[in-house]
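Weekly puzzle thread! Below is a chain. First person to post its structure in token form gets bragging rights.
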Amino acid sequence: MILIGENINVMSKIIGPALKERNPKPIQELAKAEAEAGVDYLDINIGPARKAGDELMEWVVKVVQEVTDKLLSLDTTNPVAMEAGLKVHKGRALINSISLARMEEELPLVKKYDADFIGLLWGREGMPRDADERAMIADELMTKAIEMGIPCESIWFDPIVTPVVNIESNQAKPCLEFMSTLEDIVPGCKSAVGLSNVSNGAPTDLRPILNRTYLMMLMKYGLHSAIVDAFDAELISIARGEKPELVDLVHRIMDGEKPALSSLGEEEIKYVKTVRVLTGESLYSHSWLEI
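Winning reply:
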């Protein structure tokens, strides 16, 4: 699985000011730490960057690639800034991300700079309601890309997950349903997910168990890549195939197995309870592990 470190982000209390002040040290230190933690790509998220975004993206790409040879995922909604980063990026970049609303502007950049891109399954009317709407969006994006000469293997579809905390809008299950049919709907394309979105709003100490469990659930359907916290060592080990017994347990629960909790260890019980929350079998609350 391809892991993309999410930590170089304009919203960070350390990285945000460093970007604004063009201070390379915190950014380079974090980039080196992410690379050492074992991720494959580093995501560079500068946000909308409406003012001087092109200069900022060019600067930060150069700064990061001075200290690591990891490929970068360039993350901004500003197409001018995106192109500025692509111009100076060494190697094959990943554009994060392109939706239907931005495809006319940004798909030409994929072709021009021989990049890969994450196709964000956000519809023209907003968040897709179910797996079927995701499939329609994916088909339209793929068709347009193919018309422009972009191969399917350059497309990484992100089905979009929303926080499980928001019970009424939780999209964890529809994302899984889409993932289970992705190869049939868009053959040859890959998958990507912003994993940490599933735990947004949960207490800090509970976020990792949600992220790790959802990763294992997605792995059942051949997840290609995930944008993750580079410093969650347990999550990295799961993605690298070092926890097969936990992955197998999660998949068995997804298939309907209902083991007696008394027969499981403490760690296993936590994952079983979390699968039930993520599939909607149990309602989310901050105390779901204690119930």
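Puzzle host: Confirmed. Bonus trivia for everyone else. The chain has a mean pLDDT of 96.
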